[in-house]
User: Which sequence fits this backbone?
């Protein structure tokens, strides 16, 4: 008999399938075999940890780069990283990346003919505090077209990468903005089967997070797989 | 009501400047204990075409088989010069290369001893959530009793065992990751 799980498994409907033909890039990249469910060993319940020595001054503020201010609408993105038991996940690395206000990434592969901003690199990095909280100041990213289907545009989004306490809690995701008309047309967003889960990818406008005369605030909490038991190793 | 899991979304093609930090493809330092090895390979799609925009992360135990993590309570030494995490992006030919040490065997809770292995996460455009696999080593007697390998159908197990690279200047292993098709790599759900 399999030992019981230390971490909750993926919640049904909360994550996309690998094969989702409407997102064309999955067609040749999604495995045909279902993943084999394995017992959670030490290999899965441990994982990398990072320290604050990784951070440099300004990593939480994307509105300045190369000595001057980026163009676009300044925003605050803040929230907490939690587990499914609503417990904060402290001291975990949060990495973000995004397009600039015109919808262009500072990346050599991005050929969208929108202007680059020499003062926006679109990369941020923080560690959560003891209460699981994180906070970035950035520029609202623009929507951009991509070659998935006729007139396909990605909704405005910010990419997030998180580790949490172990290898099994690793999460890479995207944060969207409320009221974006492109969301209902986007196969990547709509690949999440459960509509409540999908809505958890949409940030909330927050007037209390909004800084007067400076930047609108959007709140976005991230929830990683929770612990269902205590490890008992020999 | 308890909060629900945040769904996974694809890493997309533009992660490089954010996620590929300098030096993360080299896990080994001058003072790291253990046998130095190179692991290299290619990431291929269902047509056998190279995937040039993937990211591979690895997580592994040190030479004694101990993870640098508080939940590893095995009575084994930590190595202050080896932490076990690596990250690398594939190049245009789908290739990657990591420099690390050969991990030791690791306990497997109440299901026995695990053969030396490296845990792998694969991220790419077109992967709505990352894939997880493991790299095992050839000619390793412990493979026969590894509790995870034993859950894999016999005919698919070879996709999890790296191939020794002959006549290399340093001990090297090749591990290709095939996302789809007849020789599809075995992936796991944790």
Assistant:
């Amino acid at each position: 008999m399999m030992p019981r799980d230390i971490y909750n498994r993926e919640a049904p409907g909360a994550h996309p399938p690998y094969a989702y033909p409407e997102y064309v890039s999955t067609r040749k990249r999604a495995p045909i075999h279902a993943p084999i469910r394995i017992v959670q060993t030490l290999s899965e319940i441990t994982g990398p940890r990072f320290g604050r020595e990784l951070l440099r001054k300004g990593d939480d503020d994307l509105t300045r780069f190369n000595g001057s201010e980026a163009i676009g609408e300044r925003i605050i993105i803040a929230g907490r990283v939690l587990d499914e038991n609503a417990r904060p996940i402290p001291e975990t690395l949060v990495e973000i990346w995004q397009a600039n206000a015109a919808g262009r990434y500072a990346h050599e592969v991005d050929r969208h003919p929108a202007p680059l901003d020499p003062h926006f690199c679109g990369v941020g990095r923080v560690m959560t505090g003891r209460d699981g909280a994180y906070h970035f100041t950035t520029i609202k990213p623009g929507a951009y077209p991509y070659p998935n289907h006729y007139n396909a545009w990605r909704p405005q989004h910010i990419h997030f990468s998180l580790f949490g306490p172990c290898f099994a809690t690793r999460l890479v995701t995207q944060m969207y903005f409320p009221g974006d008309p492109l969301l209902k047309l986007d196969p990547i967003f709509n690949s999440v089967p459960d509509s409540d889960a999908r809505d958890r990818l949409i940030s909330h406008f927050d007037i209390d997070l909004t800084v007067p005369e400076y930047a609108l605030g959007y709140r976005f909490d991230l929830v990683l797989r929770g612990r269902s038991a205590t490890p008992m190793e020999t | 009501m308890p909060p629900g899991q945040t769904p996974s979304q694809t890493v997309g093609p533009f992660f490089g400047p954010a996620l590929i930090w300098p030096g993360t493809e080299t896990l080994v330092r001058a003072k790291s204990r253990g046998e130095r090895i190179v692991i290299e390979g290619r990431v291929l799609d269902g047509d056998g075409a190279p995937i040039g925009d993937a990211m591979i992360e690895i997580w592994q135990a040190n030479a004694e088989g101990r993870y640098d993590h508080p939940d590893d309570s095995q009575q084994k030494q930590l190595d202050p010069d080896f932490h076990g995490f690596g990250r690398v992006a594939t190049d245009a030919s789908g290739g990657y290369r990591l420099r690390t040490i050969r991990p030791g065997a690791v306990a497997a809770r109440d299901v026995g001893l695990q053969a030396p292995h490296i845990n792998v996460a694969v991220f790419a455009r077109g992967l709505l959530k990352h894939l997880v696999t493991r790299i095992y080593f050839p000619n390793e007697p412990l493979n026969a009793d590894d509790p995870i390998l034993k859950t894999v159908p016999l005919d698919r197990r070879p996709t999890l065992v790296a191939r020794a690279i002959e006549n290399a200047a340093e001990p090297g292993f090749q591990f290709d990751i095939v996302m789809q098709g007849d020789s599809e790599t075995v992936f796991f759900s944790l």
Notes: Chain B has a mean pLDDT of 96. The domain at 47-178 of chain B is CATH 2.60.130.10 (Protocatechuate 3,4-Dioxygenase, subunit A).
